[in-house]
Amino acid sequence: MSGKRSVLLVAQIAPPSSLVAARRVAAQCKYLGRAGYDVTVLTSAASGEGEIEGASAVVRTNDLLTSGLNWRRGQLAALGGDSRDTYKPPSRLASVVVPDLSLGTWLPFALPAARRLARERRFDCVLTTSPPPSTHLVGLALRRRGIPWIAELRDGWTFEPPHPPWPLRVQHAADRALERRALTRADAVVAVTAPIAADAQRRLGVDAELITNGYDPDEVASAPDRVDPLLDSKRHSFVHTGRLSLSGVSLRPLLDGLRLASVESDDRFEVVFAGSVTEEERLQLAAPDLAETVRFAGWLERERALALQRAADTLLLVTEGAGRRSVATGKLFEYLAAGRPILVLGDQTEAARIVAEAVAGIAAPADDPRAIAEAVRSAVVEPLAAPAAEGRRDYAYPVLVERLAGVIERVSARPAAAGR
Q1: Which domain holds residue 153?
Q2: pTM of the model as a whole
Q3: 107-120 vs 136-143: helix axis angle to the nearest 10?
Q4: What whole-number distance in Å separates Cα of residue 243 and Cα of residue 80?
Q5: Span 220-240, mean pLDDT?
Q6: What is the pLDDT of residue 172?
Q7: CATH code for the domain in which residue 354 is found
Q8: Is the residue at 111 inside a domain?
Q9: 417, part of any domain
């Protein structure tokens, strides 16, 4: 790495927010900064306050998400686990505004701030990261001024998006048109999963670079503590940390599978959920017939949650199954770092592929209670081997950010062409 480039990183969610999106931004700033890159972060006040390790400057703009006009502003805290309140489904307004609500809540503040920063100093490139997709409109605007632009997709934009289908065809068409207009003008596109990258190539003719999410080795304890008071040492402990579902994923197949496995396994296992849930999920987890098997530990501080992961016999990852093949949540990489076996529910997902490739666990269909029960029983009877360090080394953020730096070098070296 040359380590002398000036980068503007635009992300609505950034540290100190505890949302998983902020952890990727944190790692990018940290390791680009260590390599000598001059990183300026443009983010929303909704993410909190303070400096970000590795960033030379942090600009936090207003955001209507945090204003008194937003009666749901407490949802950010609930989603990130900063609040013990349950989180609620997305607002109905989210089904109206294309491409997303941030077009009206954050972009009116972020876009002028980005233009001002571009006038005040020279950037070698701008990196915009989504969701929300409207963030990329900042990159598109600066690209017209001749600043090379990298668009990063942590979720697909119109490919397997993390929201329900648009109710009107005209909305779907407008979203696709905006996606094409933006991403085909970027100097480079980064995708966090292979299916997202493949879709960009097939549908838009964009050669996307695959740079997955990862884990920060600085957070990995050198000597994992295998004792945790939340767990029963006499039973095989399955642990799920973080929030459960946001996209209409039903817990019923999982809980029905646990019921079947419990009856046939003489209560030799327990499943502990720790994190944020909806009120409906809380009630489902508290079902009387699951009282001896399932426990909800509530929200835990991040360090406490990481310690719980390391103490588990098996880590449980619930995905959205065949509905979204591109799913590989940030939590997966925390699990890999914990060094414990992983049971993925969603055997056709990118998460299942990564776990198989890393020899880090097994997968089962997310919607088949009988298959889930069989996978649980199998893990109890013949515990899975802990994954080898070699299988997870490629997902360490220093390695991943080095690859991102290569993209930055490539686009920054190209002659600028304003107005494209």
Answers
A1: 6-214+396-412
A2: 0.90
A3: 30
A4: 8
A5: 81
A6: 96
A7: 3.40.50.2000
A8: yes
A9: no
